[in-house]
Amino acid sequence: MKFTSICILTTLISTASSFLVAHRPSTSTITCHAAKLDGRKIKGDVVPLNNFILVKKAPAQDKTEGGILLTGKAKIVKTEGTVQAVGPGKTHQDSGITVQMPVKTGESVVYGKFDGTEIDLDGQPHTLIRDDDVLVKFHGDQLTLESVDVVFDNVLVAVDSSESATEGGILLAKSSSQTKRASTGEVVKVGPGKMASNGELMTMDVAPGDMVKFRDFAGNEVEIEGKEYSVVKMVDILAKY
């Protein structure tokens, strides 16, 4: 009987020791990427939420196409950059279905001049923009007609530059042509479409090669390989011909 009690006690002690070892807190350290956000040290990476996109801004242009060096405020600040991180996407207001983000890490984007919230990350200028702020995306180092794509229900239109001239053929300066901004042109690229409440993409009613008329001042200007283009939403296109 005494021997049996000793065996039971030994078993209980062994079991308790095994439980304590198995549940002992780990002494290993989980290391996180250290960075500085707006000059303050943070732990971990900056992770965009909802439909926000973290973009590393492209360096300001310090030389004109003619080779003239620009300094200080004369430098041309580009509204483009490389996608560093992407949020999970927003949900459709009617169905709750998640809208797929139109860009991925490593792609380059062009966004509106007044879009986004600028932040300093590790001493480098970045900006947080929404997916709706993306005008075009492109692959590689240069924005070219071959590498460019439009997102959602956007349409890339090669604007008719003749609208910026008088009937006598005199070109108007930008300051003089604000009331005569080009609003017709040829469709060059068409986005995949806007997502409906059921998750399906809505049909785009135009195709590359179509000539279109869109609302005055509706498009966002983008220069590609020295030529002027306009990014127009499908809802702002009035007619095609």
TrEMBL record:
SUPFAM superfamilies for this protein: GroES-like
Record Pfam families: Cpn10
Signal peptide: 1-18
Transmembrane segments: none
Entry-linked Gene3D superfamilies: GroES chaperonin
Keyword Transferase assigned: no
GO molecular function list: ATP binding; metal ion binding; protein folding chaperone; protein-folding chaperone binding; unfolded protein binding
Keyword Signal: yes
Protein keywords: Chaperone, Signal
Gene Ontology cellular component annotations, sorted alphabetically: mitochondrion
Domain of life according to the entry: Eukaryota
Family: Belongs to the GroES chaperonin family.
Name this protein carries in UniProt: 20 kDa chaperonin, chloroplastic
Source organism of this protein record: Fistulifera solaris (Oleaginous diatom)
